Amino acid sequence: MKVKKYVAPSMPEAMNLIRKDLGSEAVILHSKEVVQGGFFGFFKKKNIEVVAAIDPQPLPSRKTQSAKPTVHEKIQLRPKNEDRELLYEIKNLKKMFELQTRPEHQKFPSLYQLAYEHLLDQEVGKNIAEEIIQQVIDETDNSEKDLDLDLIMGEVKSVIERKLNDQRSHGMKYDKKVIQFVGPTGVGKTTTIAKIAAKMILDDQKKVAFITADTYRIGAVEQLKTYARILNVPVEVAYTIGDYHQAIEKFSCYDAILVDTAGRNYRDKQYIEELTSMMDMEMMKTYLVLSLTTKPKDITEIYDQFQHLSIRDVIFTKLDETSQYGTMLNISLGRQVNIACIANGQDVPEDLMLAKPENISKLLVGDGK
After folding, report:
1. Could you point out which of 14, 23, 177, 293 has its C-alpha 20 to 30 Å from the C-alpha of 284?
2. Per-residue confidence at 178, pLDDT binned at 50, 70, 90?
3. CA 278, CA 273: separation in Å to the nearest integer?
Protein backbone atom coordinates (compact mmCIF):
# COMPACT_ATOMS: atom_id res chain seq x y z
CA MET A 1 0.00 0.00 0.00
CA LYS A 2 1.26 3.45 -0.89
CA VAL A 3 0.58 6.06 1.82
CA LYS A 4 1.28 9.75 1.38
CA LYS A 5 0.62 12.97 3.32
CA TYR A 6 -0.62 16.17 1.66
CA VAL A 7 -0.89 19.71 3.04
CA ALA A 8 -3.07 22.31 1.32
CA PRO A 9 -4.97 25.50 2.21
CA SER A 10 -8.35 23.70 1.94
CA MET A 11 -9.83 20.22 1.64
CA PRO A 12 -10.88 20.65 -2.04
CA GLU A 13 -7.33 21.65 -2.94
CA ALA A 14 -5.96 18.68 -1.01
CA MET A 15 -8.40 16.33 -2.84
CA ASN A 16 -7.23 17.67 -6.21
CA LEU A 17 -3.61 16.94 -5.28
CA ILE A 18 -4.53 13.41 -4.18
CA ARG A 19 -6.49 12.64 -7.39
CA LYS A 20 -3.62 13.86 -9.56
CA ASP A 21 -1.03 11.89 -7.61
CA LEU A 22 -2.81 8.68 -6.53
CA GLY A 23 -5.87 8.58 -8.77
CA SER A 24 -9.60 8.30 -8.05
CA GLU A 25 -9.25 4.97 -6.19
CA ALA A 26 -7.30 6.57 -3.33
CA VAL A 27 -8.87 6.56 0.10
CA ILE A 28 -8.59 9.15 2.88
CA LEU A 29 -7.07 7.67 6.03
CA HIS A 30 -6.89 10.80 8.18
CA SER A 31 -7.34 14.56 8.00
CA LYS A 32 -6.79 17.40 10.45
CA GLU A 33 -6.25 21.13 10.61
CA VAL A 34 -2.61 22.15 11.13
CA VAL A 35 -0.94 25.47 11.86
CA GLN A 36 2.32 26.26 10.11
CA GLY A 37 4.88 29.03 10.00
CA GLY A 38 4.75 32.04 12.25
CA PHE A 39 7.22 33.55 14.69
CA PHE A 40 6.86 33.08 18.47
CA GLY A 41 3.28 31.94 17.88
CA PHE A 42 2.25 34.90 15.67
CA PHE A 43 1.28 35.10 11.96
CA LYS A 44 0.56 31.40 11.65
CA LYS A 45 -1.35 29.95 8.69
CA LYS A 46 -4.03 27.27 8.97
CA ASN A 47 -3.87 24.41 6.48
CA ILE A 48 -5.46 21.01 6.04
CA GLU A 49 -3.25 17.94 6.42
CA VAL A 50 -4.63 14.81 4.69
CA VAL A 51 -3.18 11.30 4.72
CA ALA A 52 -4.28 9.26 1.68
CA ALA A 53 -3.47 5.77 0.46
CA ILE A 54 -3.78 3.54 -2.61
CA ASP A 55 -3.28 -0.22 -2.72
CA PRO A 56 -1.70 -1.24 -6.03
CA GLN A 57 -1.96 -4.96 -5.15
CA PRO A 58 -4.95 -7.06 -6.31
CA LEU A 59 -7.61 -7.98 -3.77
CA PRO A 60 -6.92 -11.21 -1.84
CA SER A 61 -8.81 -14.37 -2.79
CA ARG A 62 -12.20 -15.17 -1.19
CA LYS A 63 -10.52 -17.97 0.80
CA THR A 64 -7.99 -15.55 2.24
CA GLN A 65 -10.72 -13.04 3.02
CA SER A 66 -12.82 -15.56 4.94
CA ALA A 67 -9.95 -16.82 7.07
CA LYS A 68 -10.57 -16.25 10.77
CA PRO A 69 -8.36 -13.66 12.40
CA THR A 70 -5.86 -14.81 14.98
CA VAL A 71 -6.06 -13.73 18.62
CA HIS A 72 -3.33 -11.14 17.91
CA GLU A 73 -5.31 -9.79 14.97
CA LYS A 74 -8.47 -9.54 17.09
CA ILE A 75 -6.60 -7.40 19.60
CA GLN A 76 -5.26 -5.20 16.82
CA LEU A 77 -8.76 -4.77 15.37
CA ARG A 78 -10.16 -3.37 18.61
CA PRO A 79 -10.52 0.45 18.50
CA LYS A 80 -7.96 2.36 20.51
CA ASN A 81 -10.52 4.02 22.77
CA GLU A 82 -11.97 0.57 23.54
CA ASP A 83 -8.44 -0.59 24.45
CA ARG A 84 -8.12 2.29 26.89
CA GLU A 85 -11.49 1.56 28.48
CA LEU A 86 -10.62 -2.11 28.85
CA LEU A 87 -7.24 -1.33 30.39
CA TYR A 88 -8.91 1.16 32.73
CA GLU A 89 -11.42 -1.48 33.87
CA ILE A 90 -8.70 -4.12 34.33
CA LYS A 91 -6.59 -1.67 36.33
CA ASN A 92 -9.52 -0.83 38.61
CA LEU A 93 -10.47 -4.50 39.06
CA LYS A 94 -6.88 -5.22 40.04
CA LYS A 95 -6.96 -2.39 42.55
CA MET A 96 -10.29 -3.61 43.92
CA PHE A 97 -8.80 -7.07 44.44
CA GLU A 98 -5.78 -5.56 46.20
CA LEU A 99 -8.07 -3.55 48.47
CA GLN A 100 -9.99 -6.69 49.43
CA THR A 101 -6.74 -8.31 50.56
CA ARG A 102 -5.73 -5.39 52.79
CA PRO A 103 -8.92 -4.00 54.34
CA GLU A 104 -7.05 -2.87 57.45
CA HIS A 105 -5.29 -0.20 55.36
CA GLN A 106 -8.50 1.26 53.89
CA LYS A 107 -9.80 4.60 55.12
CA PHE A 108 -12.99 4.33 53.04
CA PRO A 109 -15.25 1.67 51.42
CA SER A 110 -13.62 0.08 48.38
CA LEU A 111 -14.99 2.26 45.55
CA TYR A 112 -14.38 5.45 47.52
CA GLN A 113 -10.93 4.16 48.44
CA LEU A 114 -10.11 3.86 44.73
CA ALA A 115 -11.15 7.48 44.22
CA TYR A 116 -9.09 8.52 47.26
CA GLU A 117 -6.00 6.72 45.95
CA HIS A 118 -6.49 8.35 42.55
CA LEU A 119 -6.27 11.76 44.23
CA LEU A 120 -3.15 10.68 46.11
CA ASP A 121 -1.63 9.50 42.81
CA GLN A 122 -2.34 13.01 41.50
CA GLU A 123 -0.27 14.28 44.47
CA VAL A 124 -3.23 15.89 46.21
CA GLY A 125 -2.38 16.33 49.90
CA LYS A 126 -3.78 13.63 52.20
CA ASN A 127 -5.92 15.99 54.27
CA ILE A 128 -7.47 17.62 51.21
CA ALA A 129 -8.06 14.23 49.52
CA GLU A 130 -9.72 12.85 52.66
CA GLU A 131 -11.94 15.91 52.96
CA ILE A 132 -13.05 15.59 49.32
CA ILE A 133 -13.85 11.87 49.57
CA GLN A 134 -15.69 12.28 52.87
CA GLN A 135 -17.85 14.97 51.29
CA VAL A 136 -18.57 12.64 48.34
CA ILE A 137 -19.57 9.87 50.77
CA ASP A 138 -21.88 12.22 52.66
CA GLU A 139 -23.56 13.32 49.42
CA THR A 140 -23.95 9.83 47.89
CA ASP A 141 -24.75 7.86 51.06
CA ASN A 142 -28.52 7.99 50.52
CA SER A 143 -28.38 7.99 46.73
CA GLU A 144 -30.81 5.69 44.96
CA LYS A 145 -28.43 5.32 42.01
CA ASP A 146 -26.28 2.21 41.61
CA LEU A 147 -22.84 3.37 42.66
CA ASP A 148 -19.89 2.62 40.41
CA LEU A 149 -16.44 4.18 40.12
CA ASP A 150 -17.43 6.47 37.23
CA LEU A 151 -20.32 7.92 39.21
CA ILE A 152 -18.12 8.43 42.29
CA MET A 153 -15.37 10.10 40.23
CA GLY A 154 -18.03 12.36 38.72
CA GLU A 155 -19.01 13.38 42.25
CA VAL A 156 -15.35 13.94 43.12
CA LYS A 157 -15.11 16.27 40.12
CA SER A 158 -18.19 18.20 41.29
CA VAL A 159 -16.89 18.55 44.84
CA ILE A 160 -13.52 19.85 43.59
CA GLU A 161 -15.28 22.46 41.44
CA ARG A 162 -17.47 23.63 44.32
CA LYS A 163 -14.49 23.90 46.66
CA LEU A 164 -12.58 25.95 44.10
CA ASN A 165 -15.62 28.14 43.47
CA ASP A 166 -15.79 28.84 47.20
CA GLN A 167 -12.33 30.39 46.92
CA ARG A 168 -11.76 33.89 45.66
CA SER A 169 -12.58 34.10 41.97
CA HIS A 170 -9.84 32.65 39.76
CA GLY A 171 -8.30 34.56 36.87
CA MET A 172 -6.04 37.51 36.05
CA LYS A 173 -6.95 40.86 37.57
CA TYR A 174 -5.90 44.22 36.14
CA ASP A 175 -6.95 46.37 39.09
CA LYS A 176 -3.38 47.60 39.73
CA LYS A 177 -1.15 49.45 37.26
CA VAL A 178 2.09 47.63 38.17
CA ILE A 179 1.96 43.81 37.88
CA GLN A 180 5.04 42.09 39.29
CA PHE A 181 5.95 38.45 38.64
CA VAL A 182 8.15 36.65 41.17
CA GLY A 183 9.29 33.07 41.67
CA PRO A 184 12.26 30.72 41.72
CA THR A 185 14.60 30.26 38.78
CA GLY A 186 13.53 28.14 35.82
CA VAL A 187 9.75 28.34 36.18
CA GLY A 188 9.20 30.28 32.94
CA LYS A 189 8.36 33.76 34.23
CA THR A 190 9.56 35.67 31.15
CA THR A 191 7.59 33.58 28.64
CA THR A 192 4.52 33.73 30.88
CA ILE A 193 4.80 37.53 31.05
CA ALA A 194 4.91 37.66 27.23
CA LYS A 195 1.76 35.51 27.00
CA ILE A 196 -0.12 37.69 29.48
CA ALA A 197 1.03 40.87 27.74
CA ALA A 198 -0.11 39.54 24.36
CA LYS A 199 -3.52 38.67 25.81
CA MET A 200 -3.86 42.11 27.41
CA ILE A 201 -2.95 43.83 24.13
CA LEU A 202 -4.93 41.65 21.72
CA ASP A 203 -8.00 40.79 23.82
CA ASP A 204 -8.29 43.68 26.26
CA GLN A 205 -6.78 46.53 24.20
CA LYS A 206 -4.48 47.51 27.07
CA LYS A 207 -1.46 49.77 26.61
CA VAL A 208 1.40 47.72 28.11
CA ALA A 209 5.05 48.35 29.04
CA PHE A 210 7.79 46.03 30.36
CA ILE A 211 10.37 46.43 33.10
CA THR A 212 12.96 43.72 33.69
CA ALA A 213 14.96 43.50 36.89
CA ASP A 214 16.29 40.06 35.91
CA THR A 215 19.89 41.13 35.33
CA TYR A 216 21.33 38.01 37.01
CA ARG A 217 20.46 35.47 34.35
CA ILE A 218 22.42 35.43 31.09
CA GLY A 219 20.12 36.27 28.21
CA ALA A 220 17.10 37.19 30.35
CA VAL A 221 17.12 40.86 29.32
CA GLU A 222 17.48 40.00 25.63
CA GLN A 223 14.66 37.47 25.88
CA LEU A 224 12.22 40.07 27.22
CA LYS A 225 13.49 42.64 24.68
CA THR A 226 12.74 40.16 21.89
CA TYR A 227 9.17 39.73 23.12
CA ALA A 228 8.89 43.53 23.48
CA ARG A 229 9.89 44.01 19.82
CA ILE A 230 7.36 41.42 18.66
CA LEU A 231 4.55 42.92 20.74
CA ASN A 232 5.67 46.50 19.96
CA VAL A 233 5.86 47.55 23.61
CA PRO A 234 8.58 49.58 25.38
CA VAL A 235 10.95 47.96 27.86
CA GLU A 236 13.29 49.35 30.53
CA VAL A 237 16.09 47.50 32.36
CA ALA A 238 16.32 48.16 36.12
CA TYR A 239 19.79 47.47 37.52
CA THR A 240 19.02 49.25 40.81
CA ILE A 241 16.01 50.19 42.91
CA GLY A 242 16.47 53.75 41.62
CA ASP A 243 16.27 52.52 38.00
CA TYR A 244 13.14 50.59 38.88
CA HIS A 245 11.31 53.61 40.33
CA GLN A 246 12.40 55.80 37.40
CA ALA A 247 10.99 53.25 34.95
CA ILE A 248 7.68 53.16 36.87
CA GLU A 249 7.49 56.95 36.60
CA LYS A 250 8.40 56.87 32.88
CA PHE A 251 5.55 54.44 32.12
CA SER A 252 2.97 56.16 34.33
CA CYS A 253 0.73 56.88 31.33
CA TYR A 254 0.43 53.16 30.44
CA ASP A 255 -2.51 50.93 31.45
CA ALA A 256 -0.25 48.19 32.80
CA ILE A 257 3.44 47.80 33.61
CA LEU A 258 4.59 44.15 33.72
CA VAL A 259 7.71 43.59 35.82
CA ASP A 260 9.98 40.58 35.31
CA THR A 261 11.99 40.01 38.50
CA ALA A 262 15.15 37.96 38.86
CA GLY A 263 14.65 34.23 39.27
CA ARG A 264 16.97 33.18 42.09
CA ASN A 265 17.19 30.71 44.94
CA TYR A 266 13.97 31.19 46.90
CA ARG A 267 15.85 30.30 50.11
CA ASP A 268 18.04 33.38 49.65
CA LYS A 269 16.78 35.88 52.27
CA GLN A 270 18.54 38.78 50.56
CA TYR A 271 16.57 38.04 47.37
CA ILE A 272 13.26 38.20 49.25
CA GLU A 273 14.34 41.43 50.98
CA GLU A 274 15.20 42.98 47.59
CA LEU A 275 11.78 42.05 46.24
CA THR A 276 10.11 43.49 49.33
CA SER A 277 11.93 46.80 48.80
CA MET A 278 10.39 47.00 45.31
CA MET A 279 6.87 46.56 46.61
CA ASP A 280 4.29 49.34 46.65
CA MET A 281 1.06 47.74 47.78
CA GLU A 282 -1.02 50.78 46.77
CA MET A 283 -0.20 50.47 43.05
CA MET A 284 1.21 46.96 42.65
CA LYS A 285 -0.12 43.42 42.31
CA THR A 286 2.28 40.49 42.68
CA TYR A 287 1.90 37.06 41.14
CA LEU A 288 3.98 34.09 42.30
CA VAL A 289 4.91 31.86 39.33
CA LEU A 290 5.25 28.15 40.15
CA SER A 291 6.10 25.14 37.99
CA LEU A 292 3.85 22.06 38.13
CA THR A 293 6.93 19.90 37.61
CA THR A 294 8.23 20.91 41.06
CA LYS A 295 7.73 18.43 43.90
CA PRO A 296 4.58 19.22 45.98
CA LYS A 297 6.57 19.60 49.20
CA ASP A 298 8.97 22.04 47.51
CA ILE A 299 6.12 24.08 46.03
CA THR A 300 4.57 24.51 49.47
CA GLU A 301 7.94 25.58 50.84
CA ILE A 302 8.41 28.05 47.97
CA TYR A 303 5.00 29.60 48.60
CA ASP A 304 5.67 29.92 52.33
CA GLN A 305 9.05 31.54 51.61
CA PHE A 306 7.33 34.26 49.56
CA GLN A 307 4.66 34.91 52.21
CA HIS A 308 6.45 38.11 53.23
CA LEU A 309 5.30 39.58 49.90
CA SER A 310 1.63 39.00 50.82
CA ILE A 311 1.13 36.69 47.84
CA ARG A 312 -2.56 36.02 47.21
CA ASP A 313 -2.34 35.00 43.54
CA VAL A 314 -0.30 32.30 41.80
CA ILE A 315 0.35 31.27 38.19
CA PHE A 316 1.20 27.65 37.38
CA THR A 317 3.47 26.80 34.45
CA LYS A 318 4.69 23.68 32.58
CA LEU A 319 1.31 21.94 32.57
CA ASP A 320 2.41 20.17 29.39
CA GLU A 321 5.43 18.62 31.13
CA THR A 322 3.58 16.63 33.80
CA SER A 323 0.54 14.40 34.31
CA GLN A 324 0.06 15.16 38.03
CA TYR A 325 -1.86 18.27 38.98
CA GLY A 326 -2.64 17.93 42.69
CA THR A 327 -0.34 20.83 43.56
CA MET A 328 -2.98 23.24 42.28
CA LEU A 329 -5.45 22.02 44.90
CA ASN A 330 -2.80 21.94 47.62
CA ILE A 331 -1.93 25.60 47.08
CA SER A 332 -5.40 26.93 46.26
CA LEU A 333 -7.30 25.10 49.01
CA GLY A 334 -4.45 24.61 51.46
CA ARG A 335 -3.21 28.22 51.35
CA GLN A 336 -6.47 29.92 50.33
CA VAL A 337 -5.07 31.67 47.25
CA ASN A 338 -6.31 32.54 43.79
CA ILE A 339 -5.01 30.69 40.69
CA ALA A 340 -4.65 33.37 38.03
CA CYS A 341 -3.89 31.19 34.99
CA ILE A 342 -2.05 28.08 33.84
CA ALA A 343 0.68 28.03 31.19
CA ASN A 344 0.74 24.86 29.11
CA GLY A 345 3.41 25.31 26.43
CA GLN A 346 5.90 27.66 24.78
CA ASP A 347 3.72 29.34 22.15
CA VAL A 348 2.95 33.02 22.72
CA PRO A 349 0.12 33.87 23.31
CA GLU A 350 -1.80 30.62 22.70
CA ASP A 351 -0.51 28.41 25.50
CA LEU A 352 -2.28 30.10 28.40
CA MET A 353 -5.21 28.28 30.02
CA LEU A 354 -7.93 29.93 32.07
CA ALA A 355 -7.86 28.67 35.65
CA LYS A 356 -11.56 27.80 35.73
CA PRO A 357 -12.57 25.27 38.42
CA GLU A 358 -13.95 22.97 35.71
CA ASN A 359 -10.61 23.03 33.86
CA ILE A 360 -8.70 22.11 37.02
CA SER A 361 -11.15 19.36 38.03
CA LYS A 362 -11.00 17.92 34.50
CA LEU A 363 -7.20 17.71 34.74
CA LEU A 364 -7.38 15.95 38.10
CA VAL A 365 -10.22 13.54 37.35
CA GLY A 366 -10.15 13.13 33.58
CA ASP A 367 -12.40 13.75 30.59
CA GLY A 368 -14.82 10.91 30.89
CA LYS A 369 -15.72 11.18 34.57
Report:
1. 293
2. very high
3. 9
